[in-house]
Target: Oxidoreductase
Amino acid sequence: MTDTRTTAHHPLDKVVAITGAGSGIGRATALALAERGATVVLGARNADRVEQVAAGIRENGGRAVAVPTDVRRRADLVRLTDTAVSAFGRLDVLVNNAGIGPISPLEDLRVDEWDDMIDVNLRGVLHGIAAALPVFRRRRAGHLVTVASTAAYRTAPGQAVYAATKTAVRTVCEGLRQEVGDLRVTIVSPGFVHTDFVNAVADPDARAAMTARRDAIAMDPIAIADAIAYAIAQPDQIDVNEIVVRPTAQR
Ligand SMILES: NC(=O)c1ccc[n+]([C@@H]2O[C@H](COP(=O)([O-])OP(=O)(O)OC[C@H]3O[C@@H](n4cnc5c(N)ncnc54)[C@H](OP(=O)(O)O)[C@@H]3O)[C@@H](O)[C@H]2O)c1
Model:
């Protein structure tokens, strides 16, 4: 039985692909995993920004490569996972992190934003699963980590479509876990995290209110990066299925 828990003497020997790695939780996760010794393959749409994250890791002696990735495009996820295999010989973990939250009341009929959330938050995760599963199957090992949200457990006014996408993602991952006995499947659900996430909210008053609340109570993204690192670092026979991390002040 191999214990893959990481210590100063046992670095995290994993190749991890991360979507949405240019900022926020994805960036923090890339840095945290690289610091523990993992090799990271980083995807996001903004090529310069994600390359900066990878370059920073390499300058600190880590192994990282950036791959421009739009999770709405299935082929981009295939390229991300293929890059892990071609550059580093294997893919151990895919972190499905990319997500958007242009939240608004249903009555505002921001139908294009509803579509965007479905495309990125749900379809993007499905594209990640579709790209990673064949790679994992070949080695009979692999780990899918998906960043959902506390909205997957309880919605709130203005969050109906966002919460629906996150609830769906949680259901898909639980279904996947039940289907694939030999692969690990983890959902990490953050409460309010201090990132640029709120910038997508279109209504200026709602955005200002969310930004003020974020600045008052939100967690540093490191809290979520640490939770992801914990799940990944468990021994292969231990599958951490769900982690919920909220600011203490969040109801
Ligand atoms: N912040 C919170 O309070 C909070 C709470 C619960 C859950 N979450 C979840 O945490 C995850 C990360 O969010 P965050 O807070 O870190 O927000 P963020 O700072 O806005 O980061 C989102 C990342 O996703 C990327 N992204 C957006 N659309 C993409 C697409 N179509 N394809 C590939 N990458 C895309 C962005 O880069 P590009 O624009 O360059 O693509 C960015 O790197 C999301 O799934 C979100 O739902 C956040």
User: Anything to note?
Assistant: The chain has one domain: 15-191+220-244.
